[in-house]
Design a protein that fits this description.
32 helices, Serine Threonine Protein Phosphatase 5, Tetratricopeptide repeat, 740 residues, extended
């Protein structure tokens, strides 16, 4: 282009004019090139010139940062909208991060990462770089990329230019460490923030994160104090209403009703959503004086059309209130209504089942009913319920308890029947069978009632999606028609359809039709059928009696086996009372019964051991004395004495030599002699370093002698007596083989 222009000028002008025109043209082009070059150099992201910063600030803000901010807000809104709050427990200040529940929000978070990374790559001298990195860290944390989020927040805190942004990065760093479970490092970050000068917004955020830090660790008192401080620096919003509601729940947990009511009231004043407002109202009613009649207020909520789908929650709270008043029958009735109405909310249904189970377990002592309600709870409750594992263990313990309780009751009954004379026994068996039938019918009726409560009949319009009215439902109509035909036969649709032979006025046509003979024949057939039914019932009764007779222990061997089952049941029930239910009174009574009825029981040493440690008067502990006198060589006697024994170095050396000698005797096959020596040695060298080895050697000899009961008991004793021994794994493996 330039050279073609030069030739045109040269052709059209003289030489002088050509030089002047060329000079003017060249200077203009050179100036434009130099100006463009200067602008490009000054706009480099590595330049600190005002022009460069202004240009990169403009591009960073409007090309990337605004888009990243909007996408992060959208992701948070989606997360809040899709996350279902569990009002059956104390709400978490911050929900646990779960990347699997971010399907809709994930694309927006990916966009945040993309746009903020673009600012870091192309606009590194922009004043928005700190905010971009903070947004990047928040997006990564929300996605569950905790390690990457931690590194990002660390980078902002180290290289950030704004002190406010560095403080904000530390707050989010503390949150990230809390989410990862690294509470020690989170606490160290918190110590740094304590001395920092924070803006009101950052202070509120820091106190929220700190409150969350304590709530996660179960420190409710600290959490609620910090939460209340944070609320002082927060503007009115739905988020603030939620935090006030959580504060109310925490104060409820701490039994501080005045503070709980105050926070529930504040929750209602801070633009809450409907759920928070609804549950705040319930919380306020629950915290009113128990002497006041708040049931009328609950009844008012039940009649409010806005609460049609929340009646199960209202009945649940009514049950809680009655339970606090110790009106347990009324509480159970309300909880059962909650179950019946929780058709679409299995979580609420599970909480109602658990509440009924707790009443039967803790207050009414009906472990059988409690177990059935806990079983229903386990089936319906979510796996992330805070006390899920504890509930599983409790349910298993209850089922074990019922198994042994039924065994004990059954063997008691069978032994009582075995002592009766034949005539009395026959009458008693009839009574038992009749009672079983009554109980069976009662259970069947109760099951139908529960089924009707859980699936109440509904009549919906013909286009309804649920249970339709029978005349609009062809399947139900056909089913009912078939049932009618089965009962009544094919009948014409006319008057008096129930009658086989219709009458008009007082005139009968039955004689004309010869129906009289048919009626007498039908009567004879009915008598025959009744006779057959009676014979079938008698046959069934005789069969049931023979079944029961077979279970009655008649021979000495059968009676010994029955007593052995009783002995086992008493032992297991005592342990469940003591270790699972923490009921020392019932455990003590059960172990005393065991030692009185079965003084030579293989479980007697352990029973005396439990009785000794439960004895409240150590100065007059007869059970300890009995254990040491009757079973001095048992591991339980050693456990009792171990607390008072201090072994010297000489005694330790003596124990080492003794163990070497008995092991040599064992290797030579002298099992009886070795076993006797070990019994004495275990009692002599209590507290030595080889005590666990001697105990294991004793177990090995019992295995060789094929004494299964003592072998199993010795293994259980070993695991309880030496939990830190290197031989524990071996003992567990050996016990597992026996159990198989």
């Amino acid at each position: 282009m330039i050279w073609s222009g030069i030739w045109i000028i040269l052709a059209c002008t003289g030489r002088y004019q050509f030089i002047m025109v060329f000079k003017e043209y060249f200077v203009k082009r050179l100036f434009t090139l130099l100006l463009a070059n200067c602008i490009l150099i000054s706009c480099s992201q590595f330049s600190n010139s005002p022009t460069s910063k202004a240009w990169h600030n403009l591009n960073a803000k409007y090309n990337s940062l605004l888009i990243a901010r909007d996408n992060y807000k959208i992701a948070k809104t989606i997360d809040i909208k899709e996350r279902k709050e569990n009002f059956g427990t104390v709400l978490p200040i911050f929900h646990k991060i779960d990347s699997t529940k971010l399907k809709t929000a994930r694309p927006h978070l990916e966009e945040v990462v993309k746009k903020t990374s673009l600012i870091a790559e192309r606009h590194s001298n922009s004043k928005y770089i700190d905010e971009a990195y903070l947004l990047l860290g928040k997006a990564r944390l929300m996605k569950g990329e905790i390690f990457n989020a931690i590194e990002t927040f660390k980078y902002v805190n180290t290289t950030g230019k704004s002190q406010d942004k560095k403080n904000e990065a530390l707050i989010w760093l503390m949150r990230a460490y809390t989410e990862s479970g690294d509470f020690q490092t989170a606490n160290q970050v918190s110590d740094i923030l304590k001395s920092a000068v924070l803006s009101p917004r950052d202070k509120a955020q820091y106190l929220l994160v700190k409150a969350h830090f304590h709530q996660v660790q179960g420190e409710d008192a600290l959490a609620v104090v910090l939460l209340e401080e944070a609320l002082k620096n927060m503007p009115k919003s739905a988020e603030k209403a939620r935090y006030h509601f959580i504060a109310g729940q925490l104060f409820d947990q701490l039994n501080r009703p005045v503070y709980a009511r105050k926070n529930y009231q504040m929750a209602k004043k801070n633009r809450p959503d409907y759920d928070i407002e609804f549950y705040s109202n319930l919380g306020l009613m629950m915290n009113q004086s128990l002497a006041n009649n708040t049931i009328n207020t609950f009844e008012g909520m039940l009649t409010d059309r806005k609460n049609t789908d929340l009646k199960d929650k209202i009945y649940f709270k009514m049950g809680e209130l009655e339970s606090k008043k110790r009106n347990y029958d009324q509480a159970i009735e309300y909880y059962q209504k909650s179950v019946a109405l929780s058709t679409d909310d299995n979580v609420q249904k599970a909480y109602s089942y658990k509440a009924i189970g707790d009443i039967y377990f803790n207050h009414l002592g009906d472990f059988e009913k409690s177990a059935s309600y806990y079983d229903s709870t386990i089936i319906t409750i979510p796996k992330d319920y805070p006390d899920y594992k504890t509930l599983i263990l409790k349910t298993q313990s209850l089922n074990d308890f019922l198994k042994y309780k039924k065994t004990l009751d059954l063997e008691d009954s069978l032994q009582t029947l075995a002592a009766m004379n034949p005539l009395a026994l026959d009458n008693k068996l009839e009574e038992i069978i009749i009672q079983q039938e009554k109980d069976k019918k009662k259970l069947s009726d109760a099951a139908k009632v529960v089924a009707n409560q859980q699936n109440p009949p509904q009549m919906v319009a013909s286009n309804g999606a649920k249970n339709r009215w029978i005349l609009y439902d062809p399947a139900e109509l056909l089913k009912s028609r078939n049932e009618f035909t089965r009962l009544w036969g094919n009948r014409n649709l006319d008057d008096n359809w129930r009658r086989a032979d219709k009458e008009t006025g007082s005139v009968s046509f039955s004689i004309e039709r010869g129906v009289e003979k048919k009626d007498s024949l039908a009567a004879r057939q009915t008598e025959e059928e009744l006779d057959k039914a009676n014979k079938a019932a008698e046959s069934q009764l005789a069969f049931r009696k023979s079944e029961l007779l077979q279970k009655i222990p008649k021979t000495p061997i059968q009676q010994a086996a029955s007593k052995r089952k009783q002995e086992e049941a008493y032992y297991q029930l005592g342990k469940i009372y003591k270790l699972q239910f923490q009921d020392n009174e019932k455990a003590r009574a059960t172990f005393i019964t065991l030692t009185e009825k079965f003084p030579k029981s293989i479980y007697a040493p352990e029973a005396y051991y439990f009785l000794a440690i439960m004895e409240e008067n150590p100065a007059d502990n007869v059970y300890r004395t009995t254990l040491l006198e009757k079973f001095p060589g048992s591991s339980f006697a050693r456990q009792i004495k171990k607390g008072n024994v201090k072994i010297s170095s000489d005694k330790e050396t003596e124990a080492q030599n003794f163990y070497a000698a008995v092991f040599k005797s064992y290797s030579e096959g002298n099992y009886d002699k070795t076993l006797e020596s070990l019994e004495n040695g275990l009692n002599e060298y209590i507290g030595s370093q080889v005590e666990d080895k001697m105990a294991m050697l004793r177990i090995m000899i019992l295995a060789k002698k094929q004494n299964k009961d003592q072998y199993q008991i010795a293994l259980q004793d070993f695991l309880r007596s030496y939990p830190n021994s290197d031989l524990t794994l071996k003992a567990k493996d050996m016990l597992a083989v026996i159990n198989k």
